[in-house]
């Protein structure tokens, strides 16, 4: 391979290639293999990569990255709920050990085959084939979140997933994907905490409705902050109140989820704009999560 004459410009990456084309940004000589189309002329690979890094991602009004498809996260949440529901139905429904492990309940459950009943671990261990499943009071704090993914009846999961699909993409569009997921989980935990304090000590609470009420609270707070017309939620609010007072429905979970979602949205919406906005939001949401855990611990100590 011949070497270009002295004084002839050569590609900065391939010194054996003569070229008279220069990068439009850094003006270094570039050969055809190193040329990258630009809005004007050509750029070198390094300048193209640097330009991509410097392009700022579009943000929501509250600092989150705008989702290319705001429905994707809700579809993932729906898929998780459906998978858990299928597993529960296939393993015994309301008598499934999965229900006892994942649902929100205060006291430990002794699972003997397909039958579960409240009992202390000592009593349960006396049974030959029995296994003991702890409740919140015994430290099963994962139930603060997992309870919102548990459904037994087809109509229950159907109604909740329809509501999630109605509200979820809206909230993700307002907040961004990561903030939406964090808010959903915090609302789930706040819902379980409310049940822990206000519900019956011998109830088992399941369902995503607490988290969905959190999405409703978040949508109202974000809409109010942006000056949107909240009258569009009037029918939704009326239906939510009616559903909450139906016997057998956990109004405690709905209330806790709504408050948790509204508080999380307020932290995101009212964080001061500026360089440290994301840090302030993260600190606020972390503090809210810590309050939920502290409330759980306090309730445990009072039982």
From TrEMBL:
GO terms for biological process: proteolysis. This is Rhomboid family intramembrane serine protease. Its main location: membrane. It holds the Pfam family Rhomboid. Residues 139-268 form the Peptidase S54 rhomboid domain. PANTHER family: PRESENILIN-ASSOCIATED RHOMBOID-LIKE PROTEIN, MITOCHONDRIAL, RHOMBOID PROTEASE. The chain crosses the membrane at residues 61-88, 152-171, 178-198, 204-224, 231-249, 255-271, 278-298. It is found in: Membrane. It comes from Nocardioides simplex. InterPro entries: Peptidase_S54_rhomboid_dom, Rhomboid-like_sf, Rhomboid_protease_S54. One of its GO terms (molecular function) is serine-type endopeptidase activity. Keywords: Hydrolase, Membrane, Protease, Transmembrane, Transmembrane helix.
